[in-house]
Specification:
single chain; 507 residues
Amino acid sequence: MNTSASLRSPGPPARRAAPARRLGLSLFVALVAQACATTGHGPLDSSERTGEAGSVRLILNDPTGRPGPSDACDTEVCTALLELLQGAQHTIDFAVYGIRNQTALVDALYAAQRRGVRIRGVVDRDREGHNYYASTDEVAAALGPDVVRSDHAAELAAAEAELDRTEFDRVPQCERPAGFEGPLQCLVYDLGDTCLVAAHAAHGQFESEGDIMHNKFFVVDGRHVWTGSTNMSDSGTGGYNANLVTVVDSPRVAAWFTEEFEQMYVHGRYHRQKRSRPAMETRVGDTQLELLFSPQDRPITRRVRRLIRDARERIDVAVFYLTHKGIAQDLIAAHLRGVQVRVILDATSASNGYTKHELLRAVGIPVVIERWGGKMHMKSAAIDGEWVITGSMNWTSAGEGGNDENTFVLRDRALAAQYHAFFERIWAWQGEQFLTSRPGPESRDSTTACTDGVDNDFNDLADGDDPGCSDNPPPQPRLPGWRIVHKAEGVCLVDDGSPLQVWSDPG
């Protein structure tokens, strides 16, 4: 099932207040502004920012009940894009991780080009010049020489410079967990009377593959923007993964995306080479909107963490990866102060040596690991029935600090209610089975994962060829673990009484 909401443009402006009423109105506005200032939510609280006619549409793709990836364009995340491409009159600019199948969308690009629409595109390529998705090269060749460009040159330059893209401890302050070989991350979270201690590392040797061009956005005719977590693929727009798309009708927002696109396409600036610009905030229809790009705008530090810290009642999180230690700290702190926090996490990422979901569970935060065949591919949250965080950015240090990404912060009660309702539905579908454990991403526990023809756990085996789908599946890879230690006089202590330094990142 898909769900969307289309918001109307604001009506005509109200008449000016009569002179006798102006003093009272001014006092009321001042009081409201003072109240808003105390919430700590930051720039988007200003009701005085210039707004514009237009609309913001939120589309949430529910993958439950779908048997596998599909080339059909029968999901709302796909048909919304198809309508924009078929209606394009002048320009289509796109930045996508890659393309796999999706015949209807690809044909719509070709048809637009034939009728005179200017097409420009950007995709990801690794250091060898390869793209992850099978149809990317074919589509790029069909659109013509130099129509589709990539971050390949930037990747080669970064490889030569040996850029450091990790948030791992340079001088480890904790003991490496046995059997984990990757860079070590030491974590100590203050829980009040006790402390939560963990040491995280990858299962094997950690090899950075460099930063990626991970955006998924289209800008059509300098007015319409389609963006979110959804790749242009049979599992993304094809509907097999849980995904989110935001469709915005706004020349101003489209101009911001075009500027970002041209940094890459025209000027060849990707990843850490890109330049920041003044804050991008506006009201579109009924929605206050803020846009941030990675890595230059630091979306996790500037907005995501601050919104979590300011939450008062409820945080619903649906994400692919959750390895950022600062976000984990903020979610734990929100839970400890009485905020209802819930998380839905992808089954593949739950096996990552840096995943933070076990730490959240350790303090009592309910985290369910998805059990449908596809991915929990969203990078999103709704907070207090008021805010929605969307975009292409995984909640990782690489998502904020190296990859090309976009993040929307939407303040709109109708959109937040839509997100919370969607979250409730897929949370209920999951049941309680994997609130304390996790299913194998390629296993019979993950519904269609053993019949979908997809290598869901990235071990080069699919369906019946994968041991996870056998009658005697192997146990899930273990995670590094955690422990609770006591405090004395406000200091966290290990078993021998030695003090631990509490890790804290103000963000």
